[in-house]
């Protein structure tokens, strides 16, 4: 049984703050500062360029990927770290398109994160493919034998709605299509099992529920059946079979190594390693059960004390990730007032108050206090002050 009291102590949580925004950026693990400092002090400063061999920097993307693998239902040697999530989305879609010649349709949904849609749109324009976007509820019916790639974010960033990965993958395969799953709001939040779902490609970031820090590197997973054939359009030095032979032509490495692109972000990966230390004693089934308990408690509390808010997430927790959204016509100002009172969630346009629940550091007491503060802000109208309506660059 996972001890969430112990994991909470592993994070730096500022005094007086209730943090319900781990679905945007996880808090800093206490050990991260020393981990990064040690890397800079003992490795970079002392070893200089020899750190690529002596400290294992070159192997770090695979080593960290192996540690992350169990959290997403992957196996050792199947996950590699590096670059940004957008780059990994680009790699996965382009590789899937090449594996499915003769078909040029990419299917996604309107609940997908805009960056994923932008990437797919650009790829479609560059390759002669077509991007088809439907509502989340229309995805299953839209899968037909014209489809090359089904590209979805498993958990909707705005509503928390969770797609049935296994069912949609099976339907896509039956139609002759491949699947690309974005786990940005799944990894570290829900019980992902890529092998059980028989997915083809998966990508994700590590700065949300995995707590790797702002700008932490993304990951990519390829099903072993595609590992020797996947050929993404973006071909980088680190994905070459022999990078230090400096051959003029590209020759892809074997397995997941071919999905590497640029020089790995060694300092950022050090911080992520500190975050993954916290996960070593966590069972995903325990995490999921605790997450559901927290989100259900929050929904019940808000609906009992904040009648002006409208639930913007599936009521059934089985159809929801680890986040909950409520709608309010002045959601931005309400959220700023809430943050000013020490409860940090976030706003998503046009009218959504969004809250993420992470049992590693969130408790039932956090939920109850957050509900009480939110109810007081709405009842008193204290949100309706000019400075709460002034939008910052990052919302």
Can you describe what's shown?
With 395 residues, this protein is an alpha/beta fold. It folds into two domains: 134 residues, Aspartate Aminotransferase, domain 1 (Alpha-Beta Complex), CATH 3.90.1150.10; 248 residues, Aspartate Aminotransferase, domain 2 (3-Layer(aba) Sandwich), CATH 3.40.640. 38% of the residues lie in helices and 13% in strands. It is built from 14 helices and 13 strands. The chain has a seven-stranded mixed sheet with strand order 2-8-7-6-5-3-4, with helices on both faces. Helix 6 links the parallel strand 3 and strand 4. The longest helix is centred in the last third of the chain and has 22 residues.
In brief, what are we looking at here?
The protein is of the alpha/beta class and 395 residues long. Helices cover 38% and strands 13% of the residues.
Please write out the topology.
Blueprint: H1 4-8, E1 18-19, H2 32-47, H3 51-54, H4 60-69, E2 79-81, H5 85-99, E3 105-109, H6 114-127, E4 130-134, H7 139-142, E5 147-153, H8 165-174, E6 178-182, H9 194-197, E7 201-204, E8 219-222, H10 266-279, H11 284-305, E9 310-311, E10 323-327, H12 331-340, E11 343-344, E12 346-348, E13 352-356, H13 364-380, H14 386-389
Parallel strand pairs: 1-11, 3-4, 3-5, 5-6, 6-7
Antiparallel strand pairs: 2-8, 7-8, 9-10, 10-13, 12-13
Helix pairs in contact: 2-10, 4-10, 5-6, 11-13
């Amino acid at each position: 049984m996972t001890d969430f009291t112990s994991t909470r102590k592993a994070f730096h949580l500022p005094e007086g703050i209730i943090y319900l925004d781990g679905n945007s950026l996880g808090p800093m693990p206490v050990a991260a500062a020393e981990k990064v400092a040690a890397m800079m002090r003992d490795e970079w400063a002392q070893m200089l360029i020899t750190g690529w061999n002596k400290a294992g920097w070159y192997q770090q993307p695979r080593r960290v990927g192996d540690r992350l693998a169990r959290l997403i239902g992957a196996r050792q040697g199947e996950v590699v770290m590096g670059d940004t999530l957008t780059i990994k989305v680009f790699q996965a879609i382009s590789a899937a398109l090449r594996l499915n010649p003769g078909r040029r349709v990419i299917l996604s949904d309107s609940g997908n994160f805009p960056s994923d849609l932008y990437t797919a749109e650009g790829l479609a324009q560059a390759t002669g493919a077509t991007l088809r976007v439907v509502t989340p509820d229309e995805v299953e019916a839209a899968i037909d034998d014209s489809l090359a790639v089904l590209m979805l974010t498993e958990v909707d960033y705005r509503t928390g709605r969770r797609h049935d990965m296994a069912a949609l993958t099976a339907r896509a395969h039956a139609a002759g299509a491949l699947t690309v799953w974005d786990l940005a709001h799944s990894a570290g939040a829900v019980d992902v099992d890529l092998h059980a779902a028989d997915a083809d490609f998966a990508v994700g970031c590590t700065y949300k529920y995995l707590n790797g820090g702002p700008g932490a590197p993304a990951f990519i997973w390829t099903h072993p059946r595609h590992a020797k054939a996947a050929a993404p359009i973006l071909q980088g030095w680190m994905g070459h079979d022999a990078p230090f032979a400096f051959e003029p032509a590209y020759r892809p490495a074997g397995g997941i190594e071919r999905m590497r692109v640029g020089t790995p972000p060694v300092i950022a990966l050090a911080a992520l390693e500190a975050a993954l230390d916290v996960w070593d004693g966590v069972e995903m089934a325990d995490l999921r059960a605790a997450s559901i308990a927290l989100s259900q408690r929050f929904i019940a509390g808000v609906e009992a004390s904040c009648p002006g808010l409208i639930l913007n997430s599936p009521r059934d927790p089985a159809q929801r990730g680890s986040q909950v959204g409520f709608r309010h016509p002045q959601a931005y100002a309400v959220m700023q007032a809430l943050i000013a009172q020490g409860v940090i969630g976030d706003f998503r346009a046009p009218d959504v108050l969004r809250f993420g629940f992470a049992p590693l550091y969130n408790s039932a007491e956090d939920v109850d206090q957050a509900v009480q503060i939110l109810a007081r802000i709405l009842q008193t109208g204290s949100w309706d002050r000019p400075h709460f309506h002034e939008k910052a660059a990052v919302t």
